[in-house]
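Researcher: Good morning. I'm working through a list of sequences from a screen, and I'd like to move beyond sequence-only analysis. For each chain I'm collecting a predicted structure so we can compare shapes side by side. This is the next one on the list. No need for commentary yet; just the structure.
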Amino acid sequence: MKQPLLPRLLFGAFVGLVLLYLILPLLIIVPMSFSATRFLTFPPPAFSLRWYAEYFGNPAWMQATRMSLLIGVLTVIVATPLGTAAAYAISHSQTKLMRSLHMMLMLPLIVPIIIIAIGIFFIYAKIGLIQTLTGLVLANVMLGLPYVITSVVAGLQSFDKTQEMVARSLGMNRFRAFLTVTLPQIKASVFAGGIFAFISAIDETIIALFVSGGQHQTLTKRMFTALRDEIDPTIASISTLLTAASFILVLLATSSQKRAAG
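Model: Good morning. Structure tokens for this chain:
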């Protein structure tokens, strides 16, 4: 039965307003990143690539960018196999212990990030991981694991487990059967989880404020520090680049999952 036109129009208008509210900051930040003036003004009186050139030509910004990218890559290298293994165990077990473990691994998505950051800071202060690459990677692995686990669990739910059981009945051990039979069929979910873990790592700010510094200062922390001194359009240009990169990576993840589903 076809729904009345008015409710559909109202619902469409409501969705449109919500989307407009969500993208409104981008509609302001992106034009300001191309401003030719010394200060942030909207609308920009003139347009220029000056602040993008300032970003790419500044050694301090580039050092922070390289550090964020390195942390993101290392986070993916560690979090993806760990999250995949955890998701495999969770999907193959229905015990109360495994359900509790699943809930614990999801806590970084539930607990306010400021609480997590304070806890990590006090732990790191005792074991000497403040302002270290290891400390930053471990913290971001903890934050990235839920994304990998959620994505891989979803992939495993659509996978026919009997195929792996057949491989094991023919003499393969569980690990080899997973690598040979299961992983090729859920690789899109694993890839998507790794991408979301990478995005989480390069965009993380709160924990970086507490534990990064010195030569291990991330891009987001440097942006936050720069805002205290002087707000210039360089911040807008970096924000635009980060948003564009995150958007492209999300498109890659979703397109990969659609191709696998198709």
